[in-house]
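Feature request disguised as a bug report, sorry. It would help if multi-protein outputs had a clear separator. Right now it looks like this:
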Amino acid sequence: MKSLDFLIVGAQKCATTTLFEQLRVHPDIVMPLEKEVPFFTETGLGREEWAAFADHHFGPPGKRLWGKATPQYLCDPSAAERIAALMPDTKIVVILRDPIERSWSHYRMDRRRGTEDRPFADAVRDLLQPETAARNRTLPVPLHEDGFESESAFHVAWSEYGRSLAPYLEHFGPDQLLVLYLEDLASNPTETLDRLLVFLGLEAGFRPPALGKVVHAGGGGNRIPHGARVWLRERALVRKLWHAVPDARRGRMRFLYERWNGAGKSQEESPGLPVELQSTLERHFAADLDRLLRAGIEPPPWADRYLAI
């Protein structure tokens, strides 16, 4: 059985799409057409299920590396154990960003999808309540199998990187785990990509067309209203034509559409939190950052913002 050589596990809204698009065109790498096609989200999947999955998404084994990107795996407290049980030698790639900026970007995505209607400040106040926060850390990751599900419970929880990384630090050795930062990818794209390539066992120097670009910069609004998409999906002829497209191609088309449609602009370009709530949120993430640093992870570019609190 050929296993994954590497897996980009997240975090969501931290440029996992950019990494996916950069690596998928590398001549020595094979990745599925669809970025977030899941596998380790289910229990009880073994070698036989993986062989069928790999045959569909990767084809015959060869010399090229197999890789996949599913940012939801960092949010799933059981994913690391499932991955390690089936593929203990797989290399794990994580990319993070300033946690408040990630939370804000996640919130805007939910607004764009029509699954969140609260002001950001109201959402944050609710999510910081101790009982709510504890519950949201254990909720199952939405799979969006029948349309978009709300992810509003996770705007804060999925920015708790120290907590989310703990299972991966437990199940994978330090030489198997690479933590990158979106800020470094934006300011030093060649150096950051070279670091990733060397980690994967490839030569530095590969320069994809997407280098230095934010591939999926989601805005706060859709170019095409969500209601129009729902209307089209309900048309029998459209549905028939859509399902005539092979699964892999359909997934790729959906991915490209979401990337294009989600680039619309909105009037809300910054969180605009009240000063007191901003400070509360910064203290919340400062405690999680301390957990990250105590685990031996390289300090992120935004560490000073939180350590100074």
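(second protein starts here, but nothing in the output says so)
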Amino acid sequence: MVIRKAYKIELNPTKKQVHSFYQHCAACCKVWNFYLALRKDAWEKEKKSLYAMGKGESQKVTAFKAEHPWLYEVASTPLIQCLRDQDQAMKHFFRRVKLVQKGLLSPREAGYPRFKSVRRDKDRGFRFTGKEIKIDNGKIYFPRIG
């Protein structure tokens, strides 16, 4: 039997940490929109599916960071997780496209993934994965945030 636990916590960030949280959200929106535009162009022009993740996922983020230096202030893990989420959204889109081709779904319901807006999606947030979050003496430490 597997026992799973969940903890509900309250964060009391400083002004600098709040700014960093918003910066991480903005970075995720920027990465999402850039790669979604690339994928949308490939789909509309060639009916070709591009996958953001797979081999070289961190290299794509690094290349994008080189074009936008302010992204170096943001941890890479949420950006990579954002691309994984986009891959999942695209898989769902292509599944719905197949249902449209079979006549089980209307084209309007296929629903291409939406571009993100910092204002509209600021409550959505971002995710860290792996072991980069540290808990010590009742405090939680996030990479690049503190």
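Even a blank line would do. Unrelated, but nice: Strands lie at 134-136, 139-141.
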